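so my prof wants the structure for this chain in the C-alpha cells format not the other one, which i didnt know existed until like an hour ago. anyway here's the sequence
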Amino acid sequence: SPSLPEYFVVPSSLADQDLKLYSYSFIGRRMPLWSWNHPNGSALVRMANIKDVLQQRRIDQRICNAITRSHPLRSDIYKSDLDKCLPNIQEIQAAHIKLKQLCVNEPFEETEEKWLSSLENTHWLEYIR
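here's what i got, hopefully its the right format
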C-alpha cells in the first residue's frame, strides 16, 4: 500500500505470503499496523476495514490470533471501531477553520463567557482531547 510506511511491525506468526494474500482484503491494502505498545501488555493496532464481509471474521480472527501470540503477555484483544466514536478528517478540518476564525478574525472585545462559548462551539478542544 502506498499509504503505509516503508517499515512496520508484523506479528512473527504471520508468514509473508499470508500478509500479501490478506492485504488484498483490506480497503486500500492497508494491513494492520502495530502502532504502540505499553509495558502493561496493551498494544494499539490500527487496521482498515475488510472489503469482503464474508471473509472478515476469518481474516480478523487470524490476524488477532497472530497479534496475541506475538505479544509477551498474550492478553485478550479488545477491538473498537474508531470510525464510530471519533470525528472524521473533514470534521477536524472544519473545527480547525472555525478555531482560526475565532482566534484571528473575531475581535476579542466580546465577553469572556461568549468567547469561551464560541470556542466550545468549534468542537476543536473536544476533538484534540
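also thought this was worth mentioning. The first strand starts at residue 33 and ends at 37.
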